[in-house]
Amino acid sequence: MKTAHEIRPGNVIMFNDAPWVVQKTETTRSGRNAAIVKMKLKHVLIDSSTETTFKGEDKMDVIVLERLDCTYSYFNDPMYVFMDAEYNQYDVEAENVGDAAKFIVDGMEDTCQVTFYEGKAISVELPTTIVREVGYTEPSARGDTSGKVMKPAKLVGTDIELMVADFVKEGDKIEIDTRTGEFKKRV
Amino acid sequence: MQHSHWDIFCAVVDNYGDIGVTWRLARQLASEHGIEVNLWVDDLRSFGHILPALDPKLPCQMVEGIRVLQWNTPLDLPYVAGEVLIEAFACELPDEVKQAVRDAATPPCWLNLEYLSAEDWVEGCHGLPSFQPGGINKYFYMPGFSAATGGLICETGLFEARAAWQTDSSNKMALFQKLGLGGIQAEDKVISVFSYETEALPALCELWSEGQQRVHALIPKGRSFNSLKALLPCPVEALTPGQRIELGMLTLHVLPMTDQQGYDRLLWSCDFNIVRGEDSFLRAQWAARPFIWHIYQQEEDYHLVKLEAFMQLYCDNLASEIAECWRNLNLSFNQQQATAVQQHWQYMDSHAVPLLAHARQWPIDALKTTDLATRLVQFVKNSLR
Lengths: 187, 385
Prior knowledge:
Strand order of the largest sheet of chain B: 3-4-2-1-5-6-8-7
Number of strands of chain B: 14
Oligomer: heterodimer
Largest interface: A-B, 20 and 25 residues
Low-confidence stretches of chain B: none
Shape of chain A: globular
Strand order of the largest sheet of chain A: 1-6-2-3-4-5
């Protein structure tokens, strides 16, 4: 059992005897530090998607499916193609990659985990932390060194914008938490 | 046959906040929508502070048309599934209740009533189902300020009653007298204070004590006074309701405990209100008076994000100069910036008239046409369809 707070895109959770792949999670804070987790789920077996909400502490069954360490190979619209150590290729539907897709860039070497259900690759999970290069960000405006002042930045190879500490410069490599999509630190 | 009553479960966390909101909702559902409501509360003693008619020793009693039940763990009163089941503010329902829901031939419409927030994400979560074991959905009901949220708690006729009260200044003077708050003249500035501990409060008291105008701060025994220990002649525990502490132009009054209606009238009667949490925060808005919201502190200062989201809404139709002043006042109070809060208070004093005009218009703009209880009843109808 995992709490909703611990669920990540790519996990497959069971509800009422049906497997659902988690495509997207969005954690927000309610009052008194309680968390609300909004998830986008897709039924693994039938073409059905839903949005649902959980308390951060709600527990759910995460089913352990066959998983393989893979690296990203290329995008063959609408499939992301991953490859294992023996050069076998697996197609994962872009829809099932969910928010992780924004961190997938050509040439990336991160070890991802492709999940299989009844022999079919159904989702992929990125490492919790990935390192990406900052392609564009404005120069530091305030000379802040505390890391609390944030500014937008774009990553190399993607149009995704995220907030980074004010001291981060173009060309810096930064750690990103793939669960939240948030900047962690400069490498 | 399915029972038509609604059950609301409330865990009392901070004395008056969660139960304050829940009680208001229960009363409105019963009085305005004719719904039979069972209100399960885990701490009747605290509840009794805002509802003097309650006997905390009774496990089950009718108060103002609501059946109030003692929620013990394990549950020692029978729960029978009704039409609706509400867990207030994400409280964890007893296992017996969850099992009864699963076993019910027709499960109740199960709702998690969440905290009020002005943040954007609330719209995206309002009304979403939450998978539960047994194939039952629970719905997240998110109060909020926009049409895409669950709305705001406000009884029918409240604004009219408040306007009538504020039209005649003898009402407030009579209330102060009734509460044993002596020495207040009609022209004095009166400020209610219901905050958490903060360094901003002694700073404001210092400013008020050295000002030109007589100021009366009405403060219940509790957390606000914890911040004012250095100004008190005795320990906080020894303060008695009605006691007065003179500090130059400022008089601190120890406010007696009042029920919800009494607290509303107090907010209506003051020139400025400092409020905390959720229930008093909303009542301060309905009071049509300027206020500071001392928001419940969250990890990593996330409460400031919530404060900013509300201030952005509140200031939408406010002249930028006044908006900035009011925002700075709230931020400095919540960040315990003693010097800044003094400066912003003084600046705000010079904008008192337009700020008061805005405070009068805001409730009309915020509530729009329907309140939370009405929207909730409609939501349940749509969900059960």
